[in-house]
């Protein structure tokens, strides 16, 4: 409790808004003008840029989050989010995912081991795994990339400007 209070005070003095209760690992790096909302866990070698909004209720582990991102009630693990990405609520960005700038991932979405191109929109109730998604793609409600044939996994490629979904 004492260590956590000291960690939070350190970030408050450096221009980060921290609303308790939160957990911020001593290994986490934060930039000024970022807000950490209650019930948020920032763990491991996480780096969060300037002007971000993280939480409430988010878990970020060993990830890099660039300036201007917003992660609401979601989990981001071992992933990279470029600038101005919006995620959540209730979404999961799994390891080895790279989300390029200006991407919107809405509620109940999951991205696994994939790259989403700049400006892509993935509204809600969708799963993208083992895929490369080009820029300005619209992934509609309920879309799922299926890449396992019962023996091997294959990589899914969705090209620029495609509309995928219901």
Please write out the topology:
Blueprint: H1 2-13, E1 17-18, E2 22-24, E3 29-30, E4 35-36, E5 40-43, E6 47-48, E7 53-54, E8 59-61, E9 64-65, E10 70-71, E11 75-77, E12 80-81, E13 86-87, E14 92-93, E15 98-99, E16 104-105, E17 110-112, E18 115-116, E19 121-122, E20 127-129, E21 131-133, E22 138-139, E23 156-158, E24 163-164
Write out key terms for the chains shown.
166 residues; mainly beta; nine-stranded parallel β-sheet; eight-stranded parallel β-sheet; elongated
Model description:
There is one protein chain. This protein has 1 helix and 24 strands. Strands 1-4-7-10-13-16-19-22-24 form a 9-stranded parallel beta sheet, with helices on one face. Strands 3-6-9-12-15-18-21-23 form an 8-stranded parallel beta sheet, with no helix packed on it. The model has no long low-confidence stretch (mean pLDDT 95). With 166 residues, the protein is mainly β. The chain has one helix at residues 2-13, and strands at 17-18, 22-24, 29-30, 35-36, 40-43, 47-48, 53-54, 59-61, 64-65, 70-71, 75-77, 80-81, 86-87, 92-93, 98-99, 104-105, 110-112, 115-116, 121-122, 127-129, 131-133, 138-139, 156-158, 163-164. It starts with a helix and ends with a strand.
